[in-house]
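_Per-residue structure_
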Amino acid sequence: MILFIFGCMVLGSIFIVAGYTMPGWRRRFPLSIYNAGLAMALGMDLHALGMILQLYGRIEQMVGDGATFATDDPVYFVGSVMIIAGKSLFVWVAALGEGRTYSRPFWWSYWALLAVWLLVCWSFFA
């Protein structure tokens, strides 16, 4: 049953992304709602897959290694990267201004604050 549900989710994701890919590619300049839809579809899939991988990593750590808060598991790291990529696509969609162009200050402030947060975390936990 789990495999059936997973297959349904994968098929849905494939059709959603495929449905937005061709119109988004044809209308790539200027940016349009099709590009935003494709970015949202990819972002949601990346975010969901990243959450699944993080959850798997946590369950594996708790069951196999005992309860730990270590994040050195590669599966957990890949899940985290996928979540950040998905969230970045969501931010890009949020930065779109009426479907024609995106707000560069909004977009670059997101990346700047992400870099600052990385430096803060690195300095405290390294």
